Amino acid sequence: MAMSSALLTDHYELTMLQAALDSGAAHHRAVFEVFARHLPLGRRYGVVAGTGRVLDALADFRFGEAELAFLRERRVVNDRTLDFLASYRFSGDVYGYREGECYFPGSPIMVVDGTFAEAVLLETLILSILNHDSAVASAASRMTHAAGDRPIIEMGSRRTHERAAVASARAAYLAGFSSTSNLMAGSVYGVPTAGTSAHAFTLLHGSEYDAFQAQIDSLGHDTTLLVDTYDVAKAVRTAVELAGPGLGAVRIDSGDLAVVAREVRKLLDGLGATKTRIVVTSDLDEYAIAALAAAPVDGYGVGTSVVTGSGAPTASMVYKLVAREDGEGVLRPVAKKSVGKPSRGGRKDAFRVVEDGVAAAELVTTAPGAPAPEGARPLLHTLVRGGEIVGREPLDAARERHRASVAELPVLAHQLSQGDPVIPTLFS
Amino acid sequence: MAMSSALLTDHYELTMLQAALDSGAAHHRAVFEVFARHLPLGRRYGVVAGTGRVLDALADFRFGEAELAFLRERRVVNDRTLDFLASYRFSGDVYGYREGECYFPGSPIMVVDGTFAEAVLLETLILSILNHDSAVASAASRMTHAAGDRPIIEMGSRRTHERAAVASARAAYLAGFSSTSNLMAGSVYGVPTAGTSAHAFTLLHGSEYDAFQAQIDSLGHDTTLLVDTYDVAKAVRTAVELAGPGLGAVRIDSGDLAVVAREVRKLLDGLGATKTRIVVTSDLDEYAIAALAAAPVDGYGVGTSVVTGSGAPTASMVYKLVAREDGEGVLRPVAKKSVGKPSRGGRKDAFRVVEDGVAAAELVTTAPGAPAPEGARPLLHTLVRGGEIVGREPLDAARERHRASVAELPVLAHQLSQGDPVIPTLFS
C-alpha cells in the first residue's frame, strides 16, 4: 500500500547516475556522509530524528511502472538508466546515530556505503527526512526541558504541511512531548493523541453555559473546557458550576498567560476545584514556557514554534561523498575545496566521550571499526546491512535514548540564550 | 490509490463533533472563514497557494475501515460519532480566493459553508495546506520579482519534509519560479524539472577533467558543469576545452558570487563561450538575488530560503466560525472576544478595488452576493457547490493569475524592506 518514495529525489541525481553509468564509474564503491557544518542559531546541541522514517522510506524506494513512465516521457534519463532504475535495490550498508541521540557540528549522523549509483540516489530523500525531523526534535527538546515535569501537547499540525505535521508530532514526542493533536501520528506511529476544544464549539451554541453543558454531557467531567471565548472569570465559574469541582482542566488561549493563570488558579481553588488543571496555549515557544515556570500552569500546548523548529525550520545537514574506490579498487578519501564549504574526506566513526557521567566531547575519527576509546560511547550503529534493514526500533526506545542523552550533557546545554555547542567536536 | 486524508485532523475536532452530535447542534448550518490577522514579518503582500491541493485533499477525506478502527480502538470518539464519520461526505459549499491571487490581512481567503459537523472536521487539513503553500508562494513571489527576467530553479527539497518538498515546488512554480529539482512535483503537478550536477560527481572521478568529459559525453554540450569543486578558473578552462564554446552553462555554488560570476564571465567570453550561461546557487534568498542584479548571472538556484518561507515558514492563517444557525434556523454572525485575538463575525465577501489599473484597497463586506462595487474585482469564487468540487483549474492558470495580480499592485509592493501591507483592508 505504501507509495513509492523514489521520485522524492532531485533531477540531478538521476542525470549524474546516467553519466556515471555511461562512464563506468557508477558501480565504484562510494561512501557518503550526512553531517551538519554548524548547529542552527547559536544552539547548544542538536537532536537526531528521522532515522526510523529514513528506513521506512528506503524500503519504499522502488521505481515502478508509474515512476519509470514519467522519467521516460519527460526524457529525464536514457534507456540504460531506466533499466538500472527498474531493478534498483539498495544493497549496501548504512550506519547512523540512533534516533534521539544528541549531535554536534561535524557529527557523522548517517553514513551510506554502497556503489555510487546506489548511494547517490538517496541524497535528497535522506536529507529531507533528517533535516526536517531533526529541526523539530531539536526545538522540542529545548521546550521539554523548559517545561520541566509539566506535559506538553504538540498541536502545530495546522501550521505546517499536512504530512510534515505527522512527522513533526513523531519528532516532538521523541524529544519529550507527552502527546499530539495529530490523529495520523497516533495511527501511524502510536503517539498518544489529545485535544481540548475550540472557540467555534462555544460560539456554535446559544451560550457558553450551553456549550460547556454539551461538552461535559458528552465527554465527561474530566474534559478540558476552553474559558477565554468571552470573559475568563465568568467562564471558570460556569465551568465549575456545571462540572463540579472534579472538572478535569481549563484552557487559556489568550491574554497575559502568567497573570490570567494566577487569577484562574485562585478562582478555581476558591470554588473548591483544587485539582482542576490549567492548560495554556497561544504561540508558546521555549522562552515563553520558561517564563511561565513560576505560574500555576499544569500543561502547555505548543503549535507553530515546534513544527517550524523555533526559528530554525531545517537542520542544514548535507550529504557529501567522503570516500570512493579508485581504478585499482582502493577506497580513497575525497573532499571538495569550495570556498567556505570544505568537507573532511574519509569514512568516519564517532564516539561520545563521557567523563564522570557528563559528556565532554564528540570524537570523530577516520579509523572506522577501531574499538571505542576508554569512557567513550560508540555513536554509529548498523541500520542497513547488505541492503537489509536491521536498525528498526520502537519509537519509545528513541524517546528514552533522548532522555538519557540530554541528561548526560553539561548543564550549560539548557541555557536558552545563544551560544556555542556545549561540547567540542574533536577530529582525529 | 490516494491515501485517505481524514486523519490529517486534530483530535479535538472529533471530540467537538461528538459533543455537538450529542447536543443536537452538529447539524446546524455553520460558516467558517480562513483569514490571516497579519502578514508575516513586515511583508507588503501575501500570495494564496494550496487551494487546488485543498480540493484534492477534500476528495480524499473519507473515513475508511482503517481510520475508523484506529478511532474505535483508541476510544477517541463514541459509536454514534463513528457512524457519522463512516458516511462522512462534505455536502456544503466552499468559496475562496483563486490560487496565485494576492491577499492582505483580513482577506477571507476561504469560506466553508456547511453544517457544523461537516465543516469543523476540515479545519486542520485546510489550514495545513493553505498555511504551508501560501508561506512558500509568498516568499517565492518576492524572489521572482528580485530575479527579474532571470529564471529561478527551486532546489530546496532536501531542506524540508519530503512531501512538503513536492508542495513547495508547486507553490514556487505558481509564484513564478521556472522549474524545480523535485521529480515528484514534475510527475504529480507537471512542474518542469531541471538539475545540474553535484560535487560528488566530480569527486567520484579521477579528475575534474574526467568528470566533465563523462558528463558531456552522456548529457551533451548543453549540460551545466559545476565548476567550484577545486579551482574555479581552472575548471572553467577545462569545461570549455572539453565542451567547446557551445557549453550550456556553468554553476557556481560558493564564494562571493558577484565577484566570482564576473571573473567567470570574463573568462568564458575570453574563451569564446559568450553564450554559456552562469547559474549561481548557495543559500540565496530574495535579498541575495536582488544584490546580484548587476552581476553577470543568467539564472539562480534557490533552496532553503524558499521552502522555509524566507523567515516565515507558516502564513499564520486561522479558521474561525463567523456565523451559525440559531434555534430558529436564522444564520447569525458570531465572534469571540479573546484578548488580542478578536474575530469579525458574519459571512464575508471580498473585492480588490483597482483604480487606473493599480490596486487601491482590499474591500471586505458582510453582504455576500451583492454586486461588485464599480472598479472592483470579486475575489471569492465557488470552489465546491453542494459537495461537488467545481473549482479545479490547471496550475498554469494560477501561475498566470499570480503574474497579473502582482503586476497590479502599487510598485511599493516590491520593496524588500519591512513595511506595512501595500494596500489597506477596508471592512464595510
From TrEMBL, chains A, B:
InterPro entries xref list: Aldolase_TIM, NAPRTase_N, Nic_PRibTrfase-Fam, Nic_PRibTrfase_pncB, Nicotinate_pribotase-like_C
SUPFAM superfamilies, alphabetized: Nicotinate/Quinolinate PRTase C-terminal domain-like, Nicotinate/Quinolinate PRTase N-terminal domain-like
Catalytic activity as recorded in UniProt: 5-phospho-alpha-D-ribose 1-diphosphate + nicotinate + ATP + H2O = nicotinate beta-D-ribonucleotide + ADP + phosphate + diphosphate
Domain called Nicotinate phosphoribosyltransferase N-terminal: residue spans: 7-131
Molecular function GO labels: glycosyltransferase activity; nicotinate phosphoribosyltransferase activity
Keywords, in A-Z order: Glycosyltransferase, Ligase, Phosphoprotein, Pyridine nucleotide biosynthesis, Transferase
Description of post-translational modifications: Transiently phosphorylated on a His residue during the reaction cycle. Phosphorylation strongly increases the affinity for substrates and increases the rate of nicotinate D-ribonucleotide production. Dephosphorylation regenerates the low-affinity form of the enzyme, leading to product release.
EC number(s) reported in the record: 6.3.4.21
Pfam families, alphabetized: NAPRTase_N (PF17767)
Record's signal peptide: none
UniProt similarity note: Belongs to the NAPRTase family.
Purpose: Catalyzes the first step in the biosynthesis of NAD from nicotinic acid, the ATP-dependent synthesis of beta-nicotinate D-ribonucleotide from nicotinate and 5-phospho-D-ribose 1-phosphate.
Stated name of the protein: Nicotinate phosphoribosyltransferase
